[in-house]
Amino acid sequence: MPRNKATRCLFVSLALALVLLVTSANAQTSALLWRSNWETPKPDPRSLNAVAQVFGAGCGSGCPNATLGVVQAAARTGTRGLKVVVFKGSPEAWRVQMVTPVFLLSRGMSYTYCLWARSSSDELYGNRALNLDMMQASAVTFATVQSLPIVVSRNWTQFCMGVTELPTSFPTLNFNASSTSYLWSLNLAGSGDRIEFNFDDMTLTGRPNNLDATIMSKTAARIEQHRKGNFTLQIKGDRGVALPARMVTSFSLTQIKQSFPFGSAIQPDAINLLDPEMRPWFLDTTASMFNSIVPNSMFQWPEFEYAKGVFEDKQEMLLGPMYLGFAEQNGMIMQRGQALEWLTTDFGFGAHWSKQDGCEAYKGYLQTRVIRDVTAFKGKFQMYTVWNQLLHDRDWGDQCQLFSRTVKEAFWWANAADPNATLCLNDFELIDGERWASMLQMVRQWQREGVPIHCIGIQAHLTPDLDPSVIQFRLDQLALTGLALHITELTLRTVSQPSPRFTGSEQQQADALVKYLSLFYSHPAVKGITLWGWWDTGHPVTNGGLVRTDQTMKPAALAIQQLWSNTWNTSITETNATIVLDADGGYAFRGFYGTYRYSVRLTTGQRLTGVVDFPMPRPLLAGVTPSQTVTLSFPTVTVRSPPRPPSPPSVA
Ligand SMILES: *[C@@H]1O[C@H](CO)[C@@H](O)[C@H](O)[C@H]1NC(C)=O
Ligand SMILES: *[C@@H]1O[C@H](CO)[C@@H](O)[C@H](O)[C@H]1NC(C)=O
Ligand SMILES: *[C@@H]1O[C@H](CO)[C@@H](O)[C@H](O)[C@H]1NC(C)=O
Ligand SMILES: *[C@@H]1O[C@H](CO)[C@@H](O)[C@H](O)[C@H]1NC(C)=O
Ligand SMILES: *[C@@H]1O[C@H](CO)[C@@H](O)[C@H](O)[C@H]1NC(C)=O
Ligand SMILES: *[C@@H]1O[C@H](CO)[C@@H](O)[C@H](O)[C@H]1NC(C)=O
Ligand SMILES: *[C@@H]1O[C@H](CO)[C@@H](O)[C@H](O)[C@H]1NC(C)=O
User: Where is the GH10 domain (predicted)?
Assistant: First the structure.
């Protein structure tokens, strides 16, 4: 769950910071707008150095002790780089800082700020996150617009932060060259004692965001293109002879299942605690609306193994007939283990037994947990969130220096335990905020290192009014990784604080959910959608469910049912007058990927019925949906040759 960002003030002298007007080249590709590599001793307008500064006055014994210098030893490229040595840290991290000039950003653009950094320690000491902040600058204050925790190691690493104007949600950005300006800032004094940092090659690139304001009018055509395949059902009679159309009196195909996972979070406890009379209704409703489920928190470590070595009861409950057994019995197609670990102090994670014996012990416990549980749930959970909210939560990570190795090792352990499992990161503000750029940056780095990461989980705690063109832009950016994108925790709210609530009308809820589902389903990189609960009882968003507490369906439930059972459903009936079969007895059609029931009546009085699968190809080749043919053999169907036309009278 997202936390609110604090608004902080910076004590940066505006006089020091140069104001740059960054207008776009009309190029469609990224243009380099600014660079600082510390090479030019005297800044020129095209290559301005960032400002590094130490503030000492007024903090008494809490003052940091740090030095700054542009030296060759700190260069990543060229001959100069910035060296910052923090001899003594300070709780007031801003007292040693590196800030970029102030930029005036333009409408209609998407910007990415990047810098390269390394440090004398593979991770930073102390508990304080090192945050890269983007700040909105007015004459007197600097308000944090977004903040990215970064982990600096001995190896040079590039860190990036992206920003696209999003007019309708928090944080509200208003790129308007005459009124607002932005800078990027890195506060270093909180890092701890005796740390050296090197910085080089800072860049700001920009390009037109090319937001497609008409995207919603294209979703139907995009769904037709990406979610359907060309299928042929071939029917053969005795001796493999093709069934001729003239033997068919009626023919039907009914899609009974989708290959596309559409799921909901269901907590096993919630089922167990239900009034036994309600249980069948709850389970039936779940199975009728969804083909995928994920436990809310029972698989999370503090709940799953609440005391060291005590996990059998939870393992049994999850694997049992009321949970994964129920899913299997109902032919559900994708269950996710949420989550192997989460570096938050909330929800029992901070006080968990695994963190009481020091860092080395923790790493060992984590390895045991990952290997043991991924092995136990092999084939039952097809997908895992390996780390939840890594871009936001890192409390224990800083203390134990987990970021340079352990967070990636967890992927290797899980991959070895179940090579078939789809392994994901899962985070928020990826499409409703600007974390997409940090995710893109981190995942690309991991991909270069060969980390077995297969998917990006997008939590999607949304408000109804988000601009679909901006969401589309961010999905496109995340899709550049080539990984599957999964919408993992979709909720709709109008109010976030103090606790999430939906205060709009039921029709507004239905319309917004249909809008978002259509947008997600139309995006070829999105491989599944999961709602974070469907019933108002126990829903994380007050009034956020599809079904009221009195078990009646809201318009949203009916609208979503209509989508899956009608709009995104291929069902066909033919009569003997309309059916066309090819020479191999093949009936060709285009339909949504999934499972179909067929029923064919023959002139002989026989009826052929059964179920056939036309699954979503994995991986789906870009833009090409290969056709699929399934052949069915009915040796009991005798295919007779058509009556021969009478022979023409022979002419003697
Ligand atoms: C800062 O730290 C350096 C290195 O330990 C030391 O030489 C110097 O005296 C310190 N300066 C102050 C003002 O404490
Ligand atoms: C930018 O802000 C100024 C002052 O508030 C306003 O007059 C102007 O119309 C704005 N421009 C755009 C493009 O929004
Ligand atoms: C699939 O069928 C559609 C028409 O139903 C056709 O336009 C398209 O070319 C076919 N694609 C392939 C790959 O055969
Ligand atoms: C730094 O790079 C070296 C050489 O590529 C590698 O062996 C090492 O694991 C890296 N360290 C970190 C913290 O990434
Ligand atoms: C992965 O899944 C495939 C198909 O379900 C199965 O044949 C194979 O044995 C599995 N591999 C492992 C290592 O579990
Ligand atoms: C698809 O439509 C058919 C015909 O209306 C219906 O019988 C079937 O249940 C629908 N499939 C799904 C998955 O809802
Ligand atoms: C279809 O079947 C009906 C009888 O069930 C028959 O009268 C009609 O001629 C048939 N049409 C074709 C095109 O075979």
Answer: 250-563
